[in-house]
Amino acid sequence: MEKKKSWWQQPGLRIAGALILLILLGGAVGGVYYTQTPPEQPIQFPHSLHVGIGAKCQYCHTGAATGPTAGLPSPSKCWGCHQQVQVKSPELDKLAAFVKAGNSIPWVPVAIQPDFVHFNHRPHIAAGVACETCHGDVSKMTVAEPQSGQNMGWCLDCHKRMAPEKWARLSDCATCHY
Ligand code: HEC
Ligand code: HEC
Ligand code: HEC
Ligand code: HEC
Ligand code: HEC
């Protein structure tokens, strides 16, 4: 006869235990690993300046309201303004060089989750969550700065707070991992 397994060998409990550990560690470790230092970008794109002249987030990140990814503007969108804005600067010379060569700009991702996480912008924008809630005050940044502590606990905390009536679905593993 098979020997009865002790409680910590029961698969269900071990998963539950692992999850609790994960959430605790995730909170503690996440904060240490991620810094707010932005990576080196091919052009020092000043968000502050562009948001300051009235460009809306979704004018450049057009996918946010309609799909999973927000997207980045193409060089031709930059050029639509910059072939008219007559300002000389080393950063704009770089932009002109990308446009002239017909190359896309190799921006380094900043706001990024692991591949096994499925995030979708659309339901968040539809629910009225502001970009700033998750990405920080971008209107005061040059290039985008990574935000710390955006782990699983962060997603779940907000789901519980903002949509308690939908908690069953918004905490279901398959909603974010599949
Ligand atoms: C509820 C939190 C949340 C809100 C609100 C939010 N984002 Fe995001 N955003 C994320 C997360 C999480 C990622 C990383 C997604 C990934 O790697 O799969 C991301 C990634 C991005 C990216 C890079 C990848 C991509 O999707 O193109 C851009 C650009 C972006 N967001 C812009 C915006 C803008 C603009 C808004 C407002 C219109 C916005 N986000 C609102 C959480 C949010
Ligand atoms: C809606 C029009 C518009 C779009 C689109 C736009 N820009 Fe600009 N950009 C401006 C204006 C206006 C200025 C301010 C020029 C000045 O200093 O008077 C500016 C300034 C800049 C500067 C700072 C120049 C300096 O003083 O060093 C950089 C760099 C820049 N833009 C890059 C970009 C890039 C890259 C894109 C595309 C991702 C882009 N811009 C898209 C209008 C735009
Ligand atoms: C004129 C175009 C423009 C506007 C307006 C603009 N952005 Fe961006 N955004 C960019 C470009 C170009 C990048 C890539 C360089 C960087 O990471 O800063 C970027 C990067 C980002 C990223 C990181 C994307 C990644 O790949 O990880 C986030 C988040 C973001 N923007 C949010 C915002 C928010 C929020 C607003 C409004 C407050 C905004 N942006 C307005 C052009 C724009
Ligand atoms: C600031 C609050 C907030 C944060 C942070 C947040 N969410 Fe959400 N999320 C919401 C709200 C509000 C909804 C929409 C609930 C509704 O349908 O009314 C939602 C909906 C979703 C949905 C759609 C569920 C469905 O109905 O199919 C997914 C998927 C999701 N979130 C994933 C994530 C992930 C992954 C993260 C973390 C990387 C995250 N969310 C972080 C507030 C948040
Ligand atoms: C609202 C979205 C959301 C839900 C629901 C969710 N997760 Fe996650 N999960 C995340 C995010 C975001 C990460 C990656 C960030 C991190 O390190 O915490 C993650 C990471 C993980 C990891 C990997 C941790 C690591 O350190 O590599 C595991 C395992 C995991 N989740 C299991 C689960 C299980 C099991 C459930 C259901 C009980 C679940 N998740 C429900 C968003 C979610």
From TrEMBL:
CDD domains: Cytochrom_C3 (cd08168)
Domain Cytochrome c7-like: 117-177
Transmembrane segments: none
Name of the protein in question: Quinol:cytochrome c oxidoreductase pentaheme cytochrome subunit
Lineage: Bacteria, Bacillati, Chloroflexota, Anaerolineae, Anaerolineales
